[in-house]
UniProtKB/TrEMBL annotation:
Species: Clostridium perfringens
EC number per UniProt: 3.1.1.3
Listed name of the protein: Lipase
Gene symbol of the encoding locus: lipB
GO molecular function, a single term: triacylglycerol lipase activity
Catalytic EC class: hydrolase
UniProt domain Alpha/beta hydrolase fold-3: residue ranges: 331-515
Length: 518
């Protein structure tokens, strides 16, 4: 017998407090291959899950059942469980809900013990994620209810997850844990190991299915791993004399397909109506704003300092790699948000990563948003920040000859307009930029056939068309008056001096509507 395993027969106090057990399930010829009890010490040799599994000997202690369990300390989860060769593993643990409720009812305001629960559960998630396994809860969502301590535990775990580096930062507890109420149905969807049994005590689930992800299933790769995989598979193609670096999704699929990870946006997207009552010119601006942006991870490996400053009357955040002093390159960053939304919070981690990558400074501009402050007020804010930095570059330790500007979506529209006007800007980075509000123009006619969709996936067409015909919305909210959409400070693609444009990087997604107009 493995020295880390102990015969279950030694458990004391085997009284009948589990009346709902389906005894036949426990007397199978296979028994239980791995019974992992996640809990606290009840005697010097045994670790059990807080009493609910405390007296199983009466039903487990038979000749036909080979019952073993691992000792799991509160500060460690045995990774050996996840390193087995079998593709699916079953962790037999106490129902998390009942565990937390039991603890909370006993502990009341005892924060130290509540934090121990948090620590144990977070460690379980961490090890599963590290080994590319997903935890499927078979009970109601964890940590739900009105109990004050339940809410404390839930909030603390979510706070820890957001700060972590191994999980995708936009996820919260419910999104990491897949809730499956019908296990028998779920078993048909996976290559389930029939030798592993599951058990019920009355209506309390005592098991979790942990599904091993196949090597090509990268849904739960960290953002760092995804970026690494995309870079490794990158390749150059040439279209009409332009070199394009293509970074395909890191899955071995043939042809053109939508990234399977997009399912997370469907499953966890915010409701279209957030309850924000703000309406302008008949448009639900409050709902639009509340649905913008996603939480994201800080992928920096070094310490990036951030300071909040008012630059020429405009609020900004300044990011700089710790230890850098002078002759630094600088990027002015302008966030997206359809000219009406977005925030510096959403773009904070990208700005930090850029600052680390260029070994310099990134200045993120909190420009005025329509409809409260319509065109051209936001554009003027960006102009003012760039002008001030050029004139006062020494104050920030910036090399005047190394100033660039980067924007995303609507922010890229503002960025390229400013770059076209300013001869001192040496570089512009445009992330899925809005370069025109005129779909049919002398340069091209937008066409859905520009996008490869050999499998005719409806979702792809929906994505692409979601931003079409936005001229009316722009007029209602951004310009708030009739203006020629071909103006250079609205549709920069009509700038007459584009041949003199700065060194430019344009980044677009394959199925983004904006790809077809930039």
């Amino acid at each position: 017998m493995d020295k880390n395993l102990k015969d279950f027969n030694g458990i004391k106090g085997t009284e009948d407090n589990l009346t709902g057990i389906a005894k036949a399930n426990f007397n199978t010829e296979h028994g239980i291959r791995n019974l992992v009890l996640w809990g606290k010490e009840v005697d010097e040799n045994s670790y059990l899950s807080l009493g609910i599994l405390k007296r199983l000997h009466k039903y487990y202690g038979t000749d036909n059942s080979e019952i073993k369990f691992k000792k799991v300390l509160s500060d460690r989860f045995d990774e050996e469980v996840f390193s087995k060769n079998n593709s699916n593993l079953v962790l037999v643990v106490n129902s998390i809900n009942d565990l937390i409720r039991l603890e909370c009812n006993k502990l009341k305001e005892d924060e130290d013990n509540l934090n121990l629960i948090i620590k144990r559960f977070v460690r379980l998630i961490e090890i599963a994620h590290k080994n590319r396994a997903r935890i499927i809860f078979t009970t109601i969502p964890p940590f739900s209810g009105e109990n004050k301590n339940l809410e404390y535990v839930r909030n603390e775990i979510n706070s820890w997850i957001r700060k972590s580096t191994f999980l995708d930062g936009y996820l919260d507890l419910d999104k990491i844990v897949e809730k499956r109420l019908d296990v028998s149905k779920y078993k048909k969807e996976i290559n389930y190991d029939k030798e592993l049994e599951e058990y019920m005590v009355e209506n309390i689930s005592l098991y979790y299915i942990v599904e091993r992800l196949k090597p090509f299933e990268l849904d739960h790769m960290s953002q760092s791993d995804l970026i690494k995989a995309m870079n490794e598979n990158a390749r150059f193609i040439n279209e009409d004399g332009v070199n394009i670096l293509v970074k395909p999704i890191p899955d071995p699929v043939e042809g053109t397909r939508i990234d399977r990870r997009i399912k997370y946006f469907d499953e966890y997207k915010r409701p279209e109506k957030s309850g924000n009552p703000y309406v302008f010119n008949g448009e639900a601006v409050g709902d639009m704003r509340d649905n913008m942006g996603l939480l994201n991870l800080n992928l920096c490996k070094s310490n990036i300092l951030m300071s909040k400053e008012n630059i020429n009357g405009v609020n900004c955040r300044v990011y700089k790699k710790e230890g850098l002093k002078e002759n630094l390159p600088c990027i002015v960053y302008i966030h997206g948000g359809a000219f009406i939304g977005g925030s510096l919070d959403v773009s904070e981690n990208p700005c930090k990563l850029i600052a680390e990558g260029i070994n310099g400074i990134v200045i993120s501009v909190d420009y005025s948003l329509a409809p409260e402050k319509p065109y051209p007020l936001g554009l003027n804010d960006c102009r003012k920040v760039v002008e001030y930095i050029e004139e006062n570059n020494f104050f920030y330790g910036i090399d005047k000859n190394k100033i660039g500007i980067v924007g995303e979506s609507a922010g890229a529209n503002l960025a390229t307009i400013v770059a076209n006007e300013n001869s001192n800007i040496k570089f512009q980075g445009l992330v899925y930029p809005v370069v025109t509000f005129v779909e049919k123009n002398p340069f091209f006619n937008w066409d859905i056939d520009l996008y490869e969709n050999p499998y005719k996936e409806e979702k792809i067409y929906n994505f692409i068309n979601s931003l079409r015909n936005c001229e009316e919305l722009v007029q209602k909210l951004y310009t708030q008056r009739e203006l020629d959409p071909r103006r250079e400070d609205l549709s920069p693609i009509f700038n007459k001096n584009l041949s003199k444009a700065k060194k430019t990087l344009i980044a677009v997604s394959e199925y983004d509507y904006l790809r077809g107009i930039c």
